Amino acid sequence: MGAPNSEAVTGPTARRGPAVDTSTSRPPSTRRVLVLGGTAEARALAAILAAQPATTVVSSLAGRVADPRLPVGEVRIGGFGGPAGLARWLTDHHVDAVVDATHPYAARMRIAGVEAAATARVPHLRLERPGWTAQPGDRWHRVPDMAAAVRDLPALGTRALLTTGRQSLGMFLPVTGMWFLARVVDAPDEPLPAHVRLLRSRGPYTVDGELALIRDHRIDVLVTKDSGGALTEAKLVAARRLGLPVLMVDRPAPPDLPAVVQTAEEAARWVERLPAGQPG
Ligand code: NAP
Predict the structure, then answer these.
(1) Distance of alpha carbon 199 from its chain centroid, rounded?
(2) pTM value > 0.85
(3) How many CB atoms lie within 10 A of CB 183?
(4) Which atom of ligand 1 is nearest to the CA of 86?
(5) Of 99, 148, 196, 226, which has the maximum CB count within 10 A?
(6) Torsion angle in degrees (nearest 10) through CA of 26, 32, 36, 41
(7) Are 39 and 203 in contact (CB under 8 A)?
């Protein structure tokens, strides 16, 4: 569990700066909502909530990405120090509700959000986009986790487009007899072996772009999480058109969640139905 390390900035154009505590004042009779972010849905929700007169919104990012896309409104960056740290933060900052809009694979934060909201006695909502659905012509090979993906990959191809992110990259490095094109937002700290080429980029992607990438690098298998959403879906369309196998790593099993929605609009309606908070 890391120590809390946060700083506050204001989006969408601001960059990281010294911590500014904006928690002590707010307009009377507004509800203050914390959005746990790092996704397109979280940014969409922050934009909608910022326009609700009775809501003030603060978005939280983990700080994994060097140059994150910032949501509209107040933003704080860095971990809270586990569920207890987050619960303290909710109380100290007079938060009336939490919307966890973190990525479907952010398994730790998902549990921490539920526990912290229960401790701080504030309502909790999970906003999670649906996963992708296989279409006719797809050759998906589903596996329960990254370890199973590493195990099964050599049976599916020899030149992999690896899109599971920087954090899981190290697990694939010992796979011998394969070549990898690893697409990541930020480069890993460690040097990579010769059979791994790094491609730094951030979506959204187009089908034509993905087709060209796959052909140019003679990719014969795609490795992906079941992230869902439109921004990174083009690789699946390209794989389908080219008849490529797709190694699809399933989402981690969800905790028991009190309330779940799939879109930012549904989450905003949930917030709107909450009573307004006390003047802070
Ligand atoms: P994770 O494993 O669930 O979380 C690890 C730790 O990072 C948490 O315990 C927490 O630290 C901190 N953290 C995570 N999300 C945070 C947030 N929104 N605000 C403040 N602290 C946060 O998460 P992850 O998979 O590393 O993902 C980190 C971030 O990247 C998330 O915001 C997620 O939405 C985004 N993201 C993840 C993926 C993915 O594939 N995993 C893809 C795209 C975007 P403390 O314990 O110190 O509070």
Answers:
(1) 19
(2) yes
(3) 23
(4) 48
(5) 99
(6) -100
(7) no
Longest dimension (CA), the chain: 63
Stretch (H or E) spanning 187? none
> Scanning the structure block, which residue is given the tokens 């480069």?
187
Ligand 1 binding pocket (C-beta < 6 A) is 1-2, 36-39, 60-62, 64, 79-82, 85-86, 102-103, 105-109, 112, 165, 225
Q: Counting atoms of ligand 1 from 1, which one is nearest the CA of 107? A: 3
SS3 at position 176:
coil
Q: In sequence order, which ranges of 186-233 are alpha helices (DSSP H)?
A: 207-216
Residue 163 three-state SS: coil
CA distances from 279 to 8, 26, 245 (A): 21, 7, 56
For the CA atoms of 165, 86, 5, 187, the dihedral, rounded to the nearest 10 degrees, stands at: 0
Q: Which two tokens stand for residue 98?
A: 């939490």
280 pLDDT tier (thresholds 50, 70, 90): very low
Q: Is 116 helix (H, G, I), strand (E, B) or coil?
A: helix
Q: Which atom of ligand 1 is nearest to the CA of 1?
A: 46
Query: pLDDT tens digits for 217-272?
Result: 999 999 999 999 999 999 999 999 999 999 999 999 988 887 999 999 999 999 99
Q: Where are the extended beta strands (E) located within the chain?
A: 7-11, 31-36, 55-61, 73-77, 97-100, 124-127, 139-143, 159-162, 179-184, 196-200, 221-225, 245-249, 260-261
pLDDT at site 28: 57
| Whole-angstrom distance, CA of residue 169 vs CA of residue 173 | 7
Q: Could you report the per-residue pLDDT of 78-124, keeping only the tens digit for each? A: 999 999 999 999 999 999 999 999 999 999 999 999 999 999 999 99
